[in-house]
Amino acid sequence: MKVNIFLHESFSSMAEIIDGKAVAAQIGEEIRRDIEEFVKKGNRTPHLTAILVGEDPASQIYVNNKMKTATTVGITSCTKSLPADISEKELLDVIDELNNDPNVDGILVQLPVPEHINERNVCNAVAREKDVDGFSVYNVGRMSLDMDSLIPATPLGVIELMKRSNIETFGKNAVVVGRSKNVGMPIAMLMHADGRNETKGLDATITICHRFTPPKELAKYCSMADIIITATGVPGLITKEMVKPGACVIDVGITRITDPNTGKAKLVGDVDFEEVRQVAGWITPVPGGVGPMTVAMLMHNTFKAAKNLAKCE
Amino acid sequence: MKVNIFLHESFSSMAEIIDGKAVAAQIGEEIRRDIEEFVKKGNRTPHLTAILVGEDPASQIYVNNKMKTATTVGITSCTKSLPADISEKELLDVIDELNNDPNVDGILVQLPVPEHINERNVCNAVAREKDVDGFSVYNVGRMSLDMDSLIPATPLGVIELMKRSNIETFGKNAVVVGRSKNVGMPIAMLMHADGRNETKGLDATITICHRFTPPKELAKYCSMADIIITATGVPGLITKEMVKPGACVIDVGITRITDPNTGKAKLVGDVDFEEVRQVAGWITPVPGGVGPMTVAMLMHNTFKAAKNLAKCE
Q: Which residues form the Tetrahydrofolate dehydrogenase/cyclohydrolase NAD(P)-binding domain (chains A, B) (predicted)?
């Protein structure tokens, strides 16, 4: 107990805010330089094609952001907008065409797809070597076996953000809150895996909490953790009392709420930021934390796919 | 603290020993009846082929055990013994032949293979629908995504043993000690996954500990756990002090040691059985716990493969 109080005081100067936007910009600049080099050597400029089904405004914003960033790093891109009532078969045909197009390196189907289309079939239809979202059975299988693969951009962004912030993970206690297959599960896999293997796991002890973890137990696991990564979409889930003084808190949650004070819409994460920053050692803001990293790692994956495809030619 | 002492006393009558041999026999009998039915309907008798490379005595015993059990449940089987100096290419050719043999439902390559052969290439060479060990990238990927698949026999056996012993898992705290890709990782995946999905996950909160988890932290996580599953091969790793009174302790470890009292060889698990049984609520012995379940679930997988292949014909 005394130790905790002592630590708390020594951290009372507030958490270091991890600037995801700055780190992502740095990564983008590195990728831009590397692509410039790659193209100078006579390779084709990497190309990313996004598929957007329907007219969900949030999806449109996400895809636009990705495409804008692609341009800044030197990846050419194109968005195929398809009607919301397209059949699954027609969508799979479009994917197949892109799979066979030698000028396309990365294919990204913006999720969610309309309900009449099976998301899993869509994810698996993307050619494994162009699967820059890493959602196919093949890439998930390889990642789960610590083999080199295309890893989903958000988990990869979380890992990269920690690495570049010099967060110690080896033998540390980490909690992942949320078990989604696109975010929580891959993060847990990469966090606990062996650093000597191809995916260069972070060798942390990992606890996976989820919707059926009783709140009291969630609080207990979090309070033991050197690192908390939360990806639930439940605003305010992680409070000050749950965080060990000095811990690193990574907030993957992103929820649009109406600000009770201003009446305006705003984006918030899972973490009670203003309170938790008073005890944590490091904390990511929302927005400006993990979000920009996702886009940066998508660029990383597209360039990786392009390099792999260039080798095969 | 008082609660713990109270619980401890109420459990002082010693843990219930989970009889894996009896449960495995029960499962074997169910499979035998189902196969009888399957064959009566005009289907070919399920067939399992094992590949044994080299002359490791332990591997020979394992394979013999599996083949004997196959006979008792009505699965025909055959063991291909190959010389230790076979090349990887030649081994892959043998696997490919079996992949294309319409009379073979399950293919099992007994691990480990000699060092000059890449184990991963071998596991991936087995046709996904005949991969009764569930070690291929395809089946690992599907399992990790909670999709129906052939799941490695030991993890499946651990889950089945808990289900048939009526161990509560929903929202409970579980620890998996060991992160191997064939045992610890799949157990962690199935333990924490969503019960509403195809793999019918057990919805527990899961902590994965491993060689880099500091002993003090391992003890802490274990002492919070309602369920401890250990798969490390470190005899005596789990001691009485680490176990919460009433917890369920599943011992997947199996190590051959020399008994200090008798001077004879004997098999032991990771758990200090005599001590831990005094506090645990349930405990599996070694031998006679998880071991027989592995063999039973291999039969389950072979029959499952046979049913799937029969549907495709």
A: 152-308
Name the H helices within chain A.
2-10, 20-40, 57-73, 88-99, 119-125, 137-144, 153-164, 184-192, 215-224, 273-276, 290-312
Nearest to B106 by CA among B49, B43, B67, B45: B49
Contact B207 A207 (CB under 8 A): yes
Residues from chain B that touch A142, judged by Cβ atoms under 8 A, are: 137, 141
Residue A178 is given by DSSP the state -
Residue A211 in any domain: the answer is yes
pLDDT digits (tens, 9 = 90+) for B72-110: 999 999 999 999 999 999 999 999 999 999 999 999 999
* In-domain check, residue A206: yes
Per-residue pLDDT tens digits for B158-183: 999 999 999 999 999 999 999 999 99
Q: Which of B66, B172, B244, B304 is catalytic?
A: B66
User: What CATH number corresponds to the domain at position A86?
Assistant: 3.40.50.10860
Which pTM value belongs to this model? 0.95
Same domain, B182 and B112: no
Instruction: Let me know if B133 is a catalytic residue.
Output: yes
Closest CA–CA distance from residue A198 to any residue of chain B (Å):
13
Could you tell me if B129 and B197 lie in one domain?
no
Domain edge (last residue) among A113, A137, A161: A137
Catalytic residue among A105, A131, A133, A251: A133
Domain that holds residue A91: 44-137
ipTM: 0.94
